[in-house]
Design goal:
Layout lengths: L2 H14 L8 E10 L4 E7 L2 E3 L12 E7 L7 E9 L14 H11 L3 E8 L6 E9 L3 E7 L25
Parallel strand pairs: 1-7
Antiparallel strand pairs: 1-4, 2-3, 2-5, 5-6, 7-8
Length: 171
């Protein structure tokens, strides 16, 4: 093989390495919606952190990044872990901030936080989007990766913004 032919072959081989296959997984921001009176101090979905959520809050911020498959497949699941503060307004009666009494009140309050972990199915989507986690009464969670907003008719869930803690959605 001539030096010129060898050089041409090397150029072709090096360029073919640049033509990568389309990635199966896509980066996806994480956002949350809290439909309960508790606060979600922190949460993760498949290990990717989401924003903290006040009572009946969320939908206004995203944290980077989780990942979702480019194409939905049957049996797709998410692992959601979270810490919940069942009484997020308790601090209004606490001693002044920065005092030993305040720190003691906080310590006592934080002892009531609960930690949870669930595995949930992700419903079918045509176009992937952010990982959207819905926190519901009775420590239930729903996750979607649909590339549409909650107000869109193709969004898989239609939960009211505020749900009573006794309204346990059916699975």
């Amino acid at each position: 093989m001539t030096p010129r032919a060898l050089a041409s072959l090397l150029v072709v081989l090096s360029l073919s390495g640049c033509l990568a296959k389309e990635s199966e997984m896509l980066g996806a921001p994480v956002e949350g919606y809290n439909h309960t009176s508790a606060a979600i101090n922190r949460f993760t979905v498949n290990g990717a952190g989401g924003p903290n959520l006040g009572p009946y809050g969320g939908g206004g911020g995203q944290v980077c990044c989780g990942s979702v498959p480019r194409h939905w497949r049957p049996g797709l699941r998410a692992i959601v872990e979270w810490e919940k503060d069942p009484d997020p307004r308790a601090y209004v009666n606490w001693p002044p901030l920065g005092t030993d009494a305040y720190r003691e009140a906080y310590k006592k309050h934080a002892a009531n936080y609960t930690r949870h972990r669930v595995v949930v199915e992700i419903p079918q989507y045509d176009r992937p989007g952010p990982l959207k986690v819905h926190f519901l009464p009775c420590d239930q969670v729903r996750v979607t990766a649909a590339g549409v907003l909650p107000s869109h008719p193709d969004y898989p869930y239609n939960f009211p913004r505020k749900m009573e803690d006794t309204e346990c959605p059916t699975p």
